[in-house]
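Journal club side-thread
Mid-discussion, someone asked how the predicted structure for our own chain would compare to the paper's figures. Pasting it here so we can look after the session.
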Amino acid sequence: MIFKVDFRGAIWFAAAIIGLVTISAPARADQCDDIAKQLAGGIDGLKVNFKAANIIYLSHPAAKELSLGCRAQGAAYSNELYAKGDRKPTPQFYDLVASAAAIIFTVTKDDTTTGATRCLKRMGLLRGDKVTMRYKRLNMECTRTKTEAAIAITRPKDE
């Protein structure tokens, strides 16, 4: 008993199976890229520059540096917003940080404005140049030098 194998039919069958599998699996974009697109669409003047490793660098006229960090393997946070501006931040800087944090962490803009303002204004003679605080389940760390002030906002990945 000799079996004849139809190779053309087998190849067509395998191609059809592969095609069905690729069509049925939805294409997943990176969550960090989606957040960056939401930021660019939701904030006037914000531009997405480039992505390096797990960090997307952004630019805006109100900030000297602006970046969105996404969770790396083993990181203790889900996303991170980092913004650096002048030593005495302008109202535009506060608005930018609040708007970006509201989009990234899905918290109201009023809450992120209050938290960022409190963190950046607490730095000074009594509390020093580095302030760490928690507001509305967000961790905020503000630092300043002689010429610049920076804020990093994160949310722990278990919240």
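Post-session note: DSSP finds four helices and seven strands in the chain.
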